[in-house]
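Notebook entry, structure prediction.
Reason for the run: the old model in the group folder had no record of what sequence produced it. Starting over properly, with the input documented here first.
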Amino acid sequence: MASYHCSVKVGGKGKASGHAAYIAREGYYADRTGYEDLEATGYGNLPAWAEDEPALFWSAADRYERANGATYREIEIALPRELNPAQREELVLDFIRQEIGTRHAHQWAIHNPGAALAGGEQPHAHLMYSERTVDGIDRDPDQYFKRYNARHPDLGGCRKDSAGTEERLLETRQRWAEVQNAHLQQHGHAAWVDHRSLAAQGIDREPEQHLGGRRVRQLEPEQREALLERR
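New structure, fully documented this time:
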C-alpha cells in the first residue's frame, strides 16, 4: 500500500505572504540550505490586478482580509513515490482541477525532501487557496476582500466558502484517495491508498506520529528500527 496523507490547515490574517514564499521557495527561502527540494510550482485563477503575481495577491489578502478572517486554506498531501516527477505534477494538477476548478485563486508547490526515517524520497504537495470565490465581478484589492453583499454582489467583496466542516474534510480526503489510486493504476502500479482511519480499516495499531527530521536524527538506531517495523 502506498503512503497516504491529506490534511487541511487555515492561515490567519498576516500569514499568507510568508507561507506562499515558503511553499514556492521564494524570498527568505530562496537558495537556502535545507530548502532545495522544490520540484514544481504554479498558480491559477488570480484576479486581473494580481495576474501572474501570486505574491501580490497574498500580500493583498494579508492587508485587506478581515481581522478575524482566514487569508488562505491549505491542503497538504503526500504524493506516491511510485510516480515520477512529471506524473506527480500531473496528479496534483488533476486534483486541483477537481477541488478548485475555476472557483478560487490558488498557488501550489511540490516538494521532494529526503525522508529522515526511511531514506529515499518524500514527495508531497501544498495547495493553498483563498476562500474567496471567483464570480466574474471585477474588484480592486480592497473590495475583493470585503464582506460579501448578497443583495448587491458588485458592491461587496467575493463570497467566502470555508469548506470547514468535518463532513467536507472527509469528502476531500476520500476524493484525494480516489484520484491518487486512479493515477497509480493508470501508470501500471499495484500500490494503492486508503483514506480511512486505521481502526476503520481493521488495523490494530496506533497511528504513527510525525516526528520531523530533527527528532528522527536524535533517535537511537534501535528506536528507528522499531518505528520502521511498525509500518
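Summary: Strands lie at 6-12, 38-44, 70-78, 104-111, 124-133.
The old model has been moved to the deprecated folder.
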